[in-house]
Amino acid sequence: MAGEEPYPRKILQYMEGFLVSKTLFSACELGVFEHLHESPHPLSVSDLAAALGCSEDGTERLLNACVSLELLTANTDPHGTVVYSNTEMSRVFLTKSSPTSLYRSIEYSSRTIYLCWHYLSDAVREGKNQYEKAFGVNSKDLFEALYRSDEEMVKFMHLMNSIWNICGRDVVTAFDLSPFKCICDLGGCSGALAKQCVSAYPESTVTIFDLPKVVRTSQRHFVSPQDERISFCEGDFFKDELPQADLYILARILHDWTDQRSVELLAKIYHSCRPGGGVLLVEALLYEDNSGPLTAQLYSLNMLVQTEGRERKASDYSRLLNAAGFTQVHIHNTGKIYDAILALK
């Protein structure tokens, strides 16, 4: 029709979405935000190019794109030179030293998740993850593929650490967990969620249950001896006996697995659970009519390319919990990325 744009603006935005992602990824990888953070004053293109070991032309294009993305600000100094500095958002979330840094999460997205998504069409056709095509590793054992090297395992643990540093408080306080004095975080990874738990509930202790190599790495890099109310137990939650606890936490665990394996794990928790105890699920919940939220839908596609699982609706998790023996199921939509479900025995 006359007067309409020849191409719908939204379609163009969707087409160009990967350009935005790679701009952010590259700026982080090259150290743009880190150098600006460490500098006592804003830097020019030539200063940054020299510091980063990059061409001035390429650096200028990248910096200006970051300005348009509101990741950097550009101003003219008294000598007429354009100089760049971080925005508050970049300082808080994109510098390595910030306690709420997403730098490691972005690094993992760029070097691992992005490569799997190259094969999204194949994943949709085949209905299975794409580790073999992306990295040449067999994915029959999911976490052997996910932790295919010590370096890759540490990168994944940094990803989870950054997520719970930002989102953990919301989910552990979605319900009052103070009655549960002995908590077990199954697949607790870096311990970031355990730290949020003991901070929110000073009378509680948390045991992190995870694979031996994950436990060793967590003790080496993430959880210090000063975290006195956090302890560790090594094992595979599908194969080994679970520690006794008042409350078990499964944070972003069930979305990795099929319904069958999820019920298997939940039933194991039910039988290990003390009377009056329960399990806290932390997941990105889909709307009941499957209309969104978009983030959870995209995460579900990510589960397709990376795992055996999927994102689910609250009713799906209720069904799985009921099948495992839990009858008292409480849903809390936080209004943020991750929601909480508390099921009691």
Mean pLDDT: 95
Q: How far apart are the first and last residues' alpha carbons, in Å?
A: 61 Å
| SS-derived structural category | alpha/beta
Sheet of most strands: 7 strands, mixed
In DSSP terms (H or I, runs of 4 or more residues), the helix count works out at 16
Rounded radius of gyration (Å): 22 Å
Helix-strand sequence: HHHEHHEEHHHHHHEHEHEEHEHHEE
Q: Tell me the β content.
A: 5-15%
Structure in words:
It is a single chain. The protein is α/β, with parallel strands linked by helices and 345 residues long. The chain is built from 16 helices and 10 strands. The strands form 2 sheets. The protein has a 7-stranded mixed sheet, with helices on both faces. Strands 1-3-2 form a 3-stranded antiparallel sheet. Helix 7 (103-117) crosses helix 11 (150-172) and helix 11 (150-172) packs parallel to helix 12. It is globular. The model has no long low-confidence stretch (mean pLDDT 95).
